[in-house]
Amino acid sequence: MTTCGWIFGRYLGRHYALALLMFLGGLAGIIYLFEVAELLRRTAGMTDVGLGLVTRMAAYKMPETIERILPFVVLFAGLFSFQSLTRSRELIVARAAGVSVWQFLTPALVVTLVFAGLYLAVLNPIGATFNARYRVLDERLSGAPTTLDLTGAGLWLRQSQGERRYLIHADRVERNPLTLIPLNALVYDLNNHYLGRVDAAQGVLDKGEWKVERAWVNNEGQPPRFEEVLRIPTTLTSMAIEESMAVPSTISFWQLPAFIRSITAIGLPSTAYALRWQELWAEPFILVAMVLFAATFSLRHDRHGGRLKALVAALTVGGVVFALGNAVRALGVAQTLPLPLAAWSIPLAALFAGYAALLHLEEG
């Protein structure tokens, strides 16, 4: 690349990067105000919830929301950048000087890939931490605490039943019916005073109770006793336990592989987490596709004087990609589609469609 080409490329890349930051900050600010307003509506009758907590919760939720709108941010930034450069005749002069569409797109694509890499390596872990904090606060407001914890040492369940609270541990889980192997339960009263423990080879969740077979019961201050079958009442269900698992967006890009291995070893389903892992790898392809679509609509409709058409076309394509992505993701989580197909089909289809549209424009 010549010195002039390098300088021009840096200029185009800086112009696009500024547009990207502008749209990212603008949309994030608007969404933040809406999040604050919604949380204020939810907590209107709660005297112990102040404005400080509401604004903090809205800030914690922002990274998850920004992740969802990233393709639209890149799309709008590309439209704004390319159209403004065309209106100022800079791209027209560059094209007349023999610069191809692929040459002036390269800086924008490089900026997009660098941004995608920074997002995966740095912003995603921060966002996962914030999202986890938001969900903890949200559970406190809704009064529905998480019943399940997953660690490298197995699974922990919490439940309250009557005058007792149980902290139940298992090394692994079998499903249909849900079976904890082995079952170890610590028993407390409502004031968290230790009452005793239960140890058994397994416990089966069966119609509103844990059916614990061959259990040893050690109550505080009493000798151990053996129970062939011990029944512990519970309001938990298999669906409620699985839904209590950590939301995939609360686990960072770097932690997902270890988390997937942990829950797979325990015996719980890891489909949603494996799909999330592959979707994060596919995210840069979606963003690059949005840059290609932005260039296609900007240049094509500028020739016909239709900036509104460019915006409408871009919104249509972005909406279609977003809707199809959600639909295919749902099929992947339901295991109707193979995970690689669910994670990669829409990003790759969008990338090839954007490339084909831009190639047709350049050659036409």
Task: Provide an overview of this structure.
The structure is a single chain. With 364 residues, this protein is an alpha+beta fold. It has two domains: 3-143 and 270-363, no CATH class; 148-243, no CATH class. 63% of the residues lie in helices and 18% in strands. It contains nine helices and nine strands. The chain has helices at 3-42, 51-87, 90-96, 101-142, 238-243, 256-266, 271-303, 307-333, 339-363; strands spanning 148-151, 154-161, 164-170, 172-174, 179-181, 183-189, 194-205, 209-219, 225-233. Strands 1, 2, 3, 4, 5, 6, 7, 8 and 9 form a nine-stranded antiparallel β-sheet that branches. Strand 8 and strand 9 (225-233) form a beta hairpin. It is elongated.
List key phrases describing it.
364 residues, alpha+beta, nine-stranded antiparallel beta sheet
Q: What's this entry about, in short?
A:
With 364 residues, this protein is of the alpha+beta class. Helix content is 63%, strand content 18%.
Give the helix/strand layout.
Elements: H1 3-42, H2 51-87, H3 90-96, H4 101-142, E1 148-151, E2 154-161, E3 164-170, E4 172-174, E5 179-181, E6 183-189, E7 194-205, E8 209-219, E9 225-233, H5 238-243, H6 256-266, H7 271-303, H8 307-333, H9 339-363
Antiparallel strand pairs: 1-2, 2-3, 3-6, 4-5, 5-7, 6-7, 7-8, 8-9
Helix pairs in contact: 1-2, 1-4, 2-4, 2-7, 2-8, 4-7, 6-7, 7-8, 7-9, 8-9
